[in-house]
Amino acid sequence: VSLVIVHYLSRPALERLIGSLREARPAPLREILIVNNSGDPVEDLLLNLPWPARVLESGRNLGYARGVNEGIRGAREDQVLILNPDILVPTGSIEALVRCAEERPRAGIVAPKLLNADGTLQLSARRFYNWKTLLLRRAPLGPYATRSRTLRNHLMADWDHAETRPVDWVLGAAMLARKRAIRDVGLMDERYFLYFEDVDWCQRMWRHGYEVLYCADAGMVHEYARASAQLRARSIRAHAAGLLRFAEKWSALLYAVSHYRRRILSLATLLTDVAAAVAAFLAAYGIRTSLASVLSKPVYPLPSYGGLLFFTVAVTVAALAANGLYRRTTFADSIERAFSIGQAVIQAVLFLTSATFLFQTPRYSRVLVLLLAPILYGALLLTRSLVGRVGEGARRQGFAFRRVLVVGSGAEADGAREAFEQARREGFEPLGTTVPAGPGEAPEEAAARLRALVESERIQIVCVVPEPAEVPYLLAAATALRDSGAATYWAGSVAQLASEESLTSLGGVRAVLLHAPSRGLSVRVRKRASDLLLSLFVAPFRWGALRAYLARRGGTYTPAQAWGRVWMGRLSWVGRSAYEESRWANVPGWARLALESIRPGVVTPNGSAGDPMSRVAADLAYLSRFSLAEDLRQFLRATRGDLS
User: Fold this and answer.
1) 8 A C-beta contact, residue 216 and residue 86
2) Are residues 364 and 308 in contact, defined by beta-carbon separation less than 8 angstroms?
3) Largest Cα span, the chain
4) Helices 232-250 and 131-138 meet at what angle, rounded to 10?
5) Sequence-distant (≥ 6) Cβ neighbours of residue 436 within 8 angstroms
6) CA-CA distance, 75 to 29, in Å (whole number)?
7) How many Cα neighbours within 13 Å face the side chain of 238?
8) Which residues pair with 87 in a beta bridge?
9) Please, are residues 61 and 37 in contact by the beta-carbon 8 Å criterion?
10) What is the rounded CA–CA span in Å between residue 451 and residue 474?
11) Helix (H, G, I), strand (E, B), or coil: what is residue 547?
12) Non-local CB neighbours of 16 within 8 Å, separated by 6+ positions
């Protein structure tokens, strides 16, 4: 067991913890790692210990989750015991904890029974939060909250804590974690500076198929003297931030907001641009009105300029869109933002000025347009800067994250997971899994498990990192995820054979996009729509060429029969080979897994001839690039011939 302790302004408590370890002398303990988040020297506390001990100097307060992760990365043993400095370890407690872990191999986290300093039970095992328990725990409701049955149920207060059993989650003050589970589930989410990191980690363990186990035979004392409690305002902010992150991550509504954050940000930018244009116009009108005694031309009431106001807003939005300022809302620096917005404003004002000459209407004012230019520029620069700061603040605080599932079992998959771990500050949260999970897992079972994992963990990116022998299997498994809503990428040494322009960078991992995230209809629905459109608008005009094609292929049906079978949904105009005729002989299970999702075709893709594996390869290649345009190309190529 490797022991990890995160130290921040807790020297007295840390000294008591190390003293309890000296007395207990736990046999499974192999090393101690102290992550020093406060910078004060603690090496003197580790002198003459019976175990190797290291201090990992962070140089600053990294927060609890990131500190734990630094310790886990440095740990050499297969089991990592994470303890707060305010824990006391009685004799035999770590041994009991390890025994529980050995008896329950499905347990990803094992936690001891925690006692208060006076020996009373501490309610350290909890049920997951819902909106009601969050309100009762976090709002100042006084005696009502303490008497609430809902809260007692959340705290598991009616259970005597005398038996070892799985629980929803446990306090992060003391937990034993398996490195195997950590490799699959990922490290603690570093976006939690303090609080909720333990709830989140346990939630992910359960969703990944591991248990969180409460070990009643292992008892430890939790003095509960967190140094953070001394920083009350900061503690409150950290608690609120942790709650918001947890809600964003596991609330379906807030997850959808996070998933479509770019579109939402673009819409917010559009609305602020419209507001800025209206405000600039009104300010310019006010200045023009104040100059009425100086200028000869009259100023009309504001409603008279309604058309010009609408035209100003439309031209401003059009100029910003033409300069790509809705596709991108972030800039390298403030100078780039100023130049980009200035260019769009100059174009808009020039067009507005030209329009006053081209369209001679009685209600226009060139002076107003000229006054508008600097005001509009300043207003847009201000609103764009504010929106940019909000977006950057959200990214910096970790509210714009992408959960990545790394699929693969070799060293390259481990390297990709580590690269994503290093890129957590860029908004990546990696998880890992292998396909197949074991020698007995069939392809369809593996695909179902992957789909369930993507859905339950709300995965946004699937990164397939195969060893050379795994390439066909994993690509077929990735095809099964095409309609999952996650973007699917292919990485590793095999993917590096792709052209440079097709490679993209994901947190330091060079990858090729296999399937973009589906935003609407599934592949099966889009394939059916393609067949119906070809049936109505293309096939009737290629009848003669289709008859010749079927004759060359030795088809057993006429064009009219083919049309009827496609219309009834038994065939596709373009589809895979009819492997059913040979009962899928010589077709590997991983290939059948992918190909069964589409119907046999009247026309098969180019290359679907020759030996069985060549046909399989051509059909899989077609499936990976399917689109209506691809179907049209394949159909026209197959039926190009004499139309007579």
Assistant:
1) no
2) yes
3) 97
4) 180
5) 442, 443, 445, 446, 473
6) 12
7) 19
8) 222
9) yes
10) 13
11) helix
12) 88, 223
Q: Which helix (H) or strand (E) holds 74?
A: helix 64-74
- Cα–Cα distance, 300 to 296 (Å, whole number): 13
Residue type, 122: Q
584 and 592 Cβ atoms separated by less than 8 Å: yes
- Give all domains of the chain, ordered by start, each with its CATH number: 2-250 (3.90.550.10), 261-396 (no CATH), 402-515 (3.40.50.720), 523-638 (no CATH)
Cα–Cα distance for residue pair 589/567, rounded to 1 Å: 29
SS3 sequence of 331-381: CCCHHHHHHHHHHHHHHHHHHHHHHHHHCCCCCCCHHHHHHHHHHHHHHHH
CB 212 within 8 A of CB 446: no
- Sequence-separated (6 or more) residues with CB below 8 Å from residue 33: 2, 3, 4, 5, 53, 54, 55, 56, 71, 74, 75
What is the radius of gyration, based on Cα positions, of the chain? 32
Question: For residue 470, what is the DSSP state?
Answer: G
Token digits for 83? 């303890």
Identify the sign of the CA torsion 414, 75, 437, 440: positive
Sheet with strand 402-407: strands edge to edge:
428-433, 402-407, 461-464, 487-491, 509-515, 503-506
Q: Is residue 106 within 8 Å of residue 34, measured between CB atoms?
A: no
Nearest Cα neighbor of 110 from 65, 155, 174 is 174
How, if at all, do strands 79-83 and 165-166 pair? Answer: unpaired
CB atoms within 10 A of CB 279: 15
Please, what's the b/e burial string for 215-248 (b: 16 or more CB within 10 A of its CB; e: otherwise)?
Answer: bbbbbbbbbeebbbeeeeeebeebbebbbebbbb
pTM: 0.60
Question: For 140-164, what is each residue's pLDDT tens digit?
Answer: 555 666 677 888 888 898 898 999 9
The segments of the chain whose pLDDT lies below 70 read 137-146, 225-238, 252, 254-259, 329-330, 332, 357-364, 394-400, 497-499, 501, 518-521, 606-610, 641-644
**What pLDDT shows up at residue 227?**
42
- Token pair in block for residue 599: 């119907």
81 within 8 A of 97, measured Cβ to Cβ: yes
Q: Which pairing describes strands 461-464 and 503-506: parallel, antiparallel, or unpaired?
A: unpaired
For residue 491, the cross-strand partners are: 511
Q: What are phi and psi of 211, to 5 degrees?
A: -95, 155
Collapsed DSSP state (helix, strand, coil) of residue 32? strand
The identity of residue 210, as a single letter, is Y
φ/ψ bin of 82: left (φ > 0), alpha (ψ from -120 to 50), beta (otherwise) = beta
Residues in the chain: 644
Distance in angstroms between the alpha carbons of the first and the last residue of the chain: 80
Asked if residue 424 lies in contact with residue 367, where contact means CB atoms within 8 angstroms, the answer is no
pLDDT, tens only, 257-293: 666 777 788 888 999 999 999 999 999 999 988 888 8
Q: For residues 534 and 632, is the Cβ–Cβ distance under 8 A?
A: yes
Only one residue has tokens 């296999």, namely 514
Q: Considering only CA atoms, which of 392, 403, 464 is closest in space to residue 433?
A: 464
Separation of alpha carbons 301 and 323, rounded Å: 34
Neighbours of 277 (CB within 10 A): 26
